[in-house]
Every structure is written in C-alpha cells, then in structure tokens.
What we know:
Subcellular location: Mitochondrion inner membrane
Distance between the termini: 109 Å
Number of helices: 3
Main location: mitochondrion
Organism: Athelia psychrophila
Radius of gyration: 30 Å
Keywords: Electron transport, Membrane, Mitochondrion, Mitochondrion inner membrane, Respiratory chain, Transmembrane, Transmembrane helix, Transport
Order of helices and strands: HHH
GO cellular component, one term: mitochondrial inner membrane
Strand content: under 5%
Amino acid sequence: MSNPPTLFRDPWAKREAWRKHPVFSNRAMFSSMFPGLGIAVVAFTAYVVVDNIYLQVKEKPEHH
C-alpha cells in the first residue's frame, strides 16, 4: 500500500497574507513616498513658462 501524500501547511499563512495585498506593492509604495510630487512638477513648470512669457513681453530696450 502507498502512503497518502503529506500535506504541508504553513501555520503562519494567514498572518503573512497582508504582504501580498496590492496596497503594499512596489508601485503603490513608490507613489505614496512622494504624494505631491506630480502636482508640484506641473505647478513649477507652469510657473516657469508663464514667467518666461511675461518677461519676454515686458522687456524694454535699455537707454543709456
């Protein structure tokens, strides 16, 4: 007679399940590391563009 296959169960599997949750993925961790970076980059870029356009319009020839 053959012996039935032995089942190996991890007793800690339920307690380790949180590590596989999508909230703890590398992408989610990276995006939450710098929460306002995207908005800050867009705002700074808009500021630089508007400032450069404003300075080009306002430039006057210098008279000595």
